[in-house]
Specification:
Order of helices and strands: HHHHEHHEEH
Shape: elongated
Number of helices: 7
Largest sheet: 3 strands, antiparallel
Strand content: 5-15%
Structural class: mainly alpha
Strand order of the largest sheet: 1-3-2
Distance between the termini: 50 Å
Oligomer: single chain
Number of strands: 3
Radius of gyration: 28 Å
């Protein structure tokens, strides 16, 4: 996120806070000048540079600053995932019968793929050789999980 974008978000958050303060003023009858002197929402930049400034803020303003920070963090996470492509789908394990590769078997048992491969090499987990590929049956995976449960 660029500095200009961050400043734009900060300005939007501040304007939202001012609008909320105006609504409070209308309900309570206090003047806007009094509230602006007492309750000024800090920008996220100000909070990062000087966290001690939060000590002088009313609890409501701190809560609103937290909400703004969470919203900014969520926007950053979404932008990062879109830019980097971190949202890689896990291999789908369907309920259909058939053979599973090591990645699918690991997802099925909720373990690491390397654990499946090692268990297959040691003979703890029944594996089927299909050409140069190693595959695993669901029933064999269920039996393996049952045996692991009994060991403990």
């Amino acid at each position: 996120m660029t500095i200009a974008t961050r400043k734009k978000i900060d300005k939007e958050v501040v304007s939202d806070a001012r609008r909320i303060a105006r609504r409070r003023n209308e309900r309570s009858g206090s003047s806007e000048e009094e509230d602006s002197m007492l309750m000024r929402m800090l920008s996220l930049d100000e909070v990062l540079r000087n966290p001690a400034m939060l000590a002088h803020q009313p609890p409501g303003e701190i809560a609103e600053t937290r909400i703004a920070a969470h919203a900014a963090a969520a926007a950053l996470d979404a932008a990062h995932e879109a830019a980097v492509g971190e949202t890689q789908a896990k291999p789908a394990v369907t309920g259909e019968p058939g053979l599973l590769n090591a990645a699918e078997a690991a997802t099925y048992l909720n373990v690491k793929e390397s654990f499946i491969r090692v268990a297959g090499r040691r003979g703890d987990l029944a594996a089927i050789q299909v050409g140069r590929y190693v595959r695993y049956e669901r029933k064999a995976l269920d039996d393996f999980a049952r045996r692991q449960r009994r060991r403990k």
